Amino acid sequence: MMLSRLLRIWSPDLLRPIIRLLMRARITPNQLTLAGLVLAIFAGVLAAIGSLSLAALVLLLSGFLDALDGELARQSDSQTPFGAFLDSISDHYGDFAVYLGIAWQMQRSGEHATVLLTLVAMFGSLVGSQIRSRAGMMGLDTKDVGIFTRAERIIVFVLGLLTGFLMPAIALLAFANNLSALQRLRHIAFNATKSAHAQS
């Protein structure tokens, strides 16, 4: 969560030169989003076949494009509801591709406990996303609620893939993803109760 806040503060200035080049080349935010998705899926395939270091580098590039697409949309004044929707869906597909790639590799290696933890991490990520979506329908913003966002997940993925310590990395994701989901749920319950009391 802290990392995501820092990125939102620093990224406009840090990425401005790159954003200008992208705008001159007439590259759209949605094109960057789809390119990031393709790279994330490729990273998952690389993880599945055991090319863990290369998977980490490809995933890091995918995460960089994910940061660029939103910033390009903001600085070029081209934010759209569909763009936000596409970005969210692409993030989930990309994350699941990496989870599945790691699970496949761990299954091949006989590390069944890590496979189970990967499924738990995926479940936490899915539930957290569903909670955030439902919160948005209620008019509640949970973007900064929870100890982990996608930025933190990518860093843990990359470190685990680069070092080969996938079991600790996936265990951390399993814990943090589900804790973040519960934190969002608590945030929604608290604010919904407060709103109900204010109206009564």
Gyration radius (Cα, Å) is: 18 Å
Class inferred from helices and paired strands:
mainly alpha
Largest sheet: none
What's the helix-strand series?
Answer: HHHHHHH
pLDDT below 50 for ≥5 consecutive residues: which ranges? none
The CATH topology label is Four Helix Bundle (Hemerythrin (Met), subunit A)
CATH architecture: Up-down Bundle
Helical stretch tally: 7
When the domains are counted, the total is 1
Q: What's the pLDDT, averaged over the residues? A: 87
Top-tier CATH class? Mainly Alpha
| CATH homologous superfamily (4th level) name | CDP-alcohol phosphotransferase transmembrane (TM) domain
Strand content: under 5%
In whole angstroms, how far apart are the ends? 34 Å
Number of strands: 0
In one word, what is the shape? flat
Report helical residue fraction.
over 70%
Q: What features would you describe in this structure?
A:
- By secondary structure, the protein is mostly helical.
- It has a single domain (2-193), classed as CDP-alcohol phosphotransferase transmembrane (TM) domain (Four Helix Bundle (Hemerythrin (Met), subunit A), Up-down Bundle), CATH 1.20.120.1760.
- Helix content is 84%, strand content 0%.
- It is built from seven helices and no strands.
- It has helices at residues 2-24, 29-48, 52-75, 81-108, 112-137, 150-163, 166-199.
- Helix 1 crosses helix 3, helix 2 (29-48) packs antiparallel against helix 3 (52-75) and helix 3 (52-75) packs antiparallel against helix 4.
- It starts with a helix and ends with a helix.
